[in-house]
Amino acid sequence: MRSREEKRILTGKITGIEDEYYKLKNENISCAILWYEDIKILIPSSHLGITKTNKSVIRGMLGAEIDFLVMEIDEISNLAIGSRVDAMELRAKIELPKLKQNDTVKVRIIAVGVKHIIVELYGKEVKINAENLQHTYILNCKDYYIPGDFVKVRIKRIDIENNIYELDAKCFLENPFKNIRKYITENGEYTGKVIAFPKKNSGIIVQLDITNVTCLIRVPARFNLYPHYLDKVLIKVSEIKEDRKQIYGFLMRVIK
Question: What is the pLDDT of residues 81-112, one digit of tens each?
Fold first, then answer.
């Protein structure tokens, strides 16, 4: 009641999805389900702050912790209707003006894609691409991050007027390229496994066995067939660019 009457922001985790018909004329609507103590909270997809109001988007948010304001209360059914959108707008109005460039904050992960994560920065959803999450190549962000987790980030750029927010998480992680020559050197030959086939570059991406860095590897014409995903290979390093976090080489052979 205080949330509804005094605009107090509450927080809960999305634990399910239901189709509900609640004061909506001739329409069932997908709702995110949260529990606040013993009260069931329905957040209609239209009030969830998502671009597509369908279940697939809500599924990607399962486990995420979100803010909400109570819009309506049904004491008979012991449930409430909440709005994440209203809570985000209120939090953004109060908290965002306090932030500035280079501030360090903890943000909640709302959803995870293959090459990015979505976090909530005090009422604003911000996408952080894989290259700003870790120093090394990320094949799939879902292997490292899950909705509901928190991640420490630095604000690289903030422009509230133009709705521009850039966040960086990798600055808090040790950069493995700093001491890379301890493990590899030009013209050295090393084992690894194939983890990706980049679209913009010809070749393969190989994860080295002796360190967690990856190499962009050219496949010489003498190979009739490309290696397969997760094939064990021997590569020869031709160039190391620590400052650009890039290692180049070429395929020597596929290890059977």
Answer: 999 999 999 999 999 999 999 999 999 999 99
CB 80 within 8 A of CB 8: no
151 pLDDT tier (thresholds 50, 70, 90): very high
Tokens 């903890």 -> residue = 106
Determine the residue type at 73: I
For residues 17-41, one letter each, b for 16 or more C-beta atoms within 10 angstroms of the residue's C-beta and e for the rest, the string is beebeeeeeeeebbbbbbeeeebeb
First to last CA, the chain: 66
187 and 237 Cβ atoms separated by less than 8 Å: yes
Instruction: Provide mean pLDDT across the span 52-70.
Output: 88
Q: Rg of the Cα trace of the chain?
A: 24
- 3-state SS of 38-56 is CEEEEEEHHHCCCCCCCHH
Domains located in the chain, CATH noted: 2-88 (2.40.50.140), 99-172 (2.40.50.140), 180-254 (2.40.50.140)
pTM: 0.83
- Residues 31, 109: Cα–Cα separation, whole Å: 20
* DSSP-assigned states of every residue in 81-149: EEEHHHHHHHHHHHHGGG--TT-EEEEEEEEE-SSEEEEEETTEEEEEEGGGT-SS--S-GGGT--TT-
The secondary structure element, H or E, covering residue 89 is: helix 84-95
Q: What is the pLDDT of residues 23-35, one digit of tens each?
A: 544 567 889 999 9
